[in-house]
């Protein structure tokens, strides 16, 4: 007793946590017992249910930090409850529903609505379990000595699992949750003589609740297993469909390959038969040629000795012909040199002819100029007529001279070409004659 007094003096927050834990135990136990004896779905007006929400509100408010707002200090449990949707994805729906409720104006009203919806979903214990695990995030909203930061919070979460046996149908939309006053009614939890005599019934109810909790937990695990099995069956069906399609394609490919194999075997048989036929024919031809070669071998030896003698003679004759060919090649080079000299002479004459044509153009220009001056002066016209007649005579002489030069160039070019063609023809005839001689000698 002395130790408890000292503990209360030293750590009043521990006493508060213990009292809240005991109240939570009494509230949850009384709610479960009354709900099972009630035997139907609970609504918002059920007193033990209202007391449960009041006790939960006090537990969540314990050790809550005071946040400064624009006008005043704010102390609400909506902040940590709003954090649940980030930790538990299934809580996004309940948070969105609370925000969309039109009658709620305060964060406390939203927190009360959130607790009622979580109870109807039978996931209040799951949501709060995710919250108390993240102590580092809770430290932003609670003091270090708060109930949610200590072991008492984990105990309360474990007690909330028993509420899954309760079916509640709560109307949150039309209820005024902002202005409700949360006061704990301790008269509900005071024991009477009837409660002492009903221990056996409580034990039976506890056993039934334990069985129901076990069955619900087992059902939840089975549902998750069934969903995973359904997903696996779907994936197996898809893979089976793909395998069936691949099997059909593989069968078609096997049939095509068998047909190609049969065709290749038939072609191989035909090729083998043709090859054997050709080999037999070639074998007969080789035997005939071998007999012919044996008979002609003796005559070939005699012909070889005679051909060797003729080869020596032809080699000597070929040497003589090559010497004569060298002489002809030197003559051809001399003729080519003469043709180059003739071409040079022709080019010089062509340059002379070009100069004469330029002089003729100058004379024509002078003639035109004199003709223009003739129109200006009649006296000068007579003199210029004489000059023009002289110039025309000179022009005719130059033209005649040019024609003679062109004719001489053409004759010279014709003679050169004739000489070259005759020389080439002689050389070609001589080469053909030598080639015939060499060919006759080789034969």
Automatic annotation (TrEMBL):
GO cellular component labels: cytoplasm
State the CDD domains in the record: RUN_RUFY2
Residue stretches making up the RUN domain? 43-175
**Where do the TM regions start and end?**
none
Q: Which domain of life is it from?
A: Eukaryota
Q: Which SMART domains match?
A: RUN (SM00593)
Which PANTHER family does its entry note?
A: RUN AND FYVE DOMAIN-CONTAINING PROTEIN 2, RUN AND FYVE DOMAIN-CONTAINING PROTEIN 2-LIKE PROTEIN
Query: Which named protein is this?
Result: RUN and FYVE domain containing 2
């Amino acid at each position: 007793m002395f130790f408890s007094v000292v503990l209360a003096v030293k750590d009043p927050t521990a006493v508060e946590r213990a009292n809240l834990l005991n109240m939570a135990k009494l509230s949850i136990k009384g709610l479960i017992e009354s709900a099972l004896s009630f035997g139907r779905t609970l609504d918002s007006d059920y007193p033990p249910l209202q007391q449960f929400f009041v006790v939960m509100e006090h537990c969540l408010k314990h050790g809550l930090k005071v946040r400064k707002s624009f006008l005043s200090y704010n102390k609400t449990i909506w902040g940590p409850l709003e954090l649940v949707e980030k930790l538990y994805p299934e809580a996004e729906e309940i948070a969105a529903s609370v925000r969309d409720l039109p009658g709620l104006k305060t964060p406390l009203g939203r927190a009360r609505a959130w607790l009622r919806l979580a109870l109807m979903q039978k996931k209040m214990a799951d949501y709060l379990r995710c919250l108390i695990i993240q102590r580092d995030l809770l430290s932003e909203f609670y003091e270090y000595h708060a109930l949610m930061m200590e072991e008492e919070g984990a105990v309360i979460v474990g007690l909330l699992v028993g509420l899954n046996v309760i079916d509640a149908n709560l109307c949150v939309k039309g209820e005024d949750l902002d202005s409700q006053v949360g006061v704990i009614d301790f008269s509900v939890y005071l024991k009477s003589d009837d409660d002492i005599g009903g221990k056996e019934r409580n034990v039976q109810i506890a056993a039934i609740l334990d069985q129901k909790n076990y069955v619900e937990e087992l059902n939840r695990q089975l549902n998750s297993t069934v969903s995973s099995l359904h997903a696996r069956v779907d994936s197996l069906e898809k893979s089976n469909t793909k395998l069936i399609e691949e099997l059909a394609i593989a069968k078609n490919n096997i049939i095509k390959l068998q047909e190609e194999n049969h065709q290749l075997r038939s072609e191989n048989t035909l090729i083998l038969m043709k090859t054997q036929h050709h080999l037999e024919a070639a074998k007969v031809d080789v035997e005939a040629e071998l007999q012919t070669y044996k008979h002609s071998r003796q005559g070939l030896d005699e012909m070889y000795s005679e051909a060797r003698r003729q080869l020596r003679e032809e080699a000597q004759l070929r040497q003589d012909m090559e010497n004569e060919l060298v002489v002809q090649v030197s003559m051809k080079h001399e003729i080519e040199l003469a043709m180059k000299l003739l071409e040079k002479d022709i080019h010089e004459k062509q340059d002379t002819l070009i100069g004469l044509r330029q002089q003729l153009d100058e004379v024509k220009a002078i003639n035109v100029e004199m003709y223009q001056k003739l129109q200006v002066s009649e006296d000068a016209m007579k003199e210029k007529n004489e000059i023009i007649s002289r110039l025309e005579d000179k022009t005719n002489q130059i033209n005649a001279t040019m024609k003679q030069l062109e004719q001489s160039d053409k004759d010279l070019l014709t003679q050169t070409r004739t000489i070259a063609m005759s020389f080439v023809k002689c050389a070609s005839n001589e080469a053909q004659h030598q080639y015939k001689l060499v060919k006759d000698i080789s034969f």
